[in-house]
Amino acid sequence: MKKHVKKYRMGLAIFVFIAVLAGLYVIRHANDEIIAWMNKEIQQKPSTAGLLTMPNSEVNYLGASASNAFVAMQPYNINIQGTMTPITMSGLSPTFDYSGNVPFLNPSTGKSNVADIQAWDPLFPQTFNPVLSGDYELDANLITNIGFPGRVDKQIINGIPVTMVRYNAGDNTTWGNARSMLNGWPIPPHTHVQWQIEVQFGNADGKNDWVLSPSAIWTQDNTGNWVISNGGSPVLFFQVHSTNQSNPPLQADVDTDINDPTKLMMTFSQRTGTATAPVQIGIVHGISRHTLVPIVIEAFLDERATNNGGKGLLQIWVNNALVLQQSGPTLALGPNPHWWALASYSWAQAAPYSYTRAVFFKTAKMLVFPAAPLSAPTNLTASASSSTAVNLSWAASTGAASYTIYRNSSPISSTTTTSFIDSSAVAGTTYNYTVIALDASGIASAPSNVATVTTPLPAINITSSNVGNITGTSATINWTTNISATGQVNYGTAANSLTSKVAIGTSTTSQKAMISGLNKATTYYYQIVATSGVASTSSATKSLKTLKR
Fold it and tell me: Of 433, 454, 475, which marks where a domain is finished?
């Protein structure tokens, strides 16, 4: 009996040993496959190619700059699928800079640069009235310079001011997962942008140490999507998000390096256009924890496919090395805005989670590059079509959304076309016209050339005349003109000798002049002369006869 038991135990041990070897082979084989897949992804991207040439921003914003963080000046309208859409920010003009040395509240406005903060802590929300509940989300009106203490706030790490975003081990659920997150305001599509980031994962201080947990193992499910199969937990630290879909169009995760378990690796993923499943677009291995890592993400933000006029481009540097370049959509397709966020978000883990994940941002700001300067309208011409109307036309400015017309340096109207009729001109007046182009954000070009025109005086016509109140010694001559004019009546007893005159100095369209000192029962001849400015006209010579008495 003992012999059989001994043989059984020996057989069982051999079986277990073989099973363990087989399991290790399967795990190693699975890891080899995922490593090969990850490396294949990054190898498909140019590592030494020249920089991509980013298209010019299609919209110019007052707060755009090639060197300073973007300021979303009000009114803030962004291009969503070709429609300029107003973004309501309660009158704020936030700066897109969440670096460690930048307070949460804008010093110039006293308002929050941050759209909202999401974190979990049952004590801090008790300080609000009314008390915060649910997911403890601070919107812009509730944010102060202390942020969300212990989760999203300002810290000094190794003498460096940083913005900390930390999930504390044991914290409960925030929006369904183990996360703390700082959300920015909507970003402007169809623009050339750049995020400048210096980030540190954990700190060797006994409180914020980044514990190296087992790296996530990715496998494809039966629908072809990549999923984590071993309970690992990448930490999302940056994303561009939108409610057009449930997942971010661009995200950056950090995890234990699958090639070197003493290091970290970064994974960049996309879900753009109409995609809902993540596509890993690049892996960067050998990232040191507890050390600042510089990252630059440069993009042309565009939801359109390349074959539909899209200009989307993306290139990323990590530790000052170019690690990723690609073309194609960089935003999700849909009617809603996108925003960017800093996070400590273990999205594969439900809360509470056993690891503290502290992410420190020395630098975290977004630049929006200005559009190419709007060219001034050219070839402005002006011609008077009448004494009170001037026709203007000019060559279009590329990128112009509208034009403002100036007359003698004062704006008189605006139009979206390249022609205009000024119907408020005054006859006999000289005008100098210029035109200025404006883009969709209201940024103006330089003025056009000056076009000068003088409106002509209108032709003056005597439209009616008659004689009234004839007596033996006087008569009244009545007449009307098509425009206001002064008048004069020349008269005499011979048609070719009208030597007597009566002048009317008042300018009007209806005149009368009394001629007196006439002889009784005598035929007189008269002619009316009407004058407006330098223009005048004369009536035909007519006659009248005074009465006998």
Answer: 454
pLDDT, tens digit (0-9, with 9 covering 90-100), for 232-260? 789 999 999 988 877 789 999 999 999 99
Q: Are residues 306 and 177 in the same domain?
A: yes
Contact 264, 252 (CB under 8 A): no
39, 65: one domain:
no
DSSP for 82-135 reads TEEEE---TT---B-B--TTS-SB-TTTSSBSSSEEE---SSGGGGSSSPP-TT
**Separation between Cα atoms, residue 179 and residue 136, nearest integer Å:** 12
Joined tokens for residue 303: 């939801």
**Residues contacting residue 111 through CB under 8 Å, at least 6 positions apart:** 90, 91, 92, 94, 105, 140
pLDDT tens digits for 367-414? 999 988 888 999 999 999 998 999 999 999 988 889 999 999 999 999
Domain count for the chain = 4
Tens of pLDDT, residues 500-547: 999 999 999 999 999 999 999 999 999 999 998 778 899 999 999 999
321 and 411 assigned to the same domain: no
Query: Which range marks the domain in which residue 439 is found?
Result: 378-454
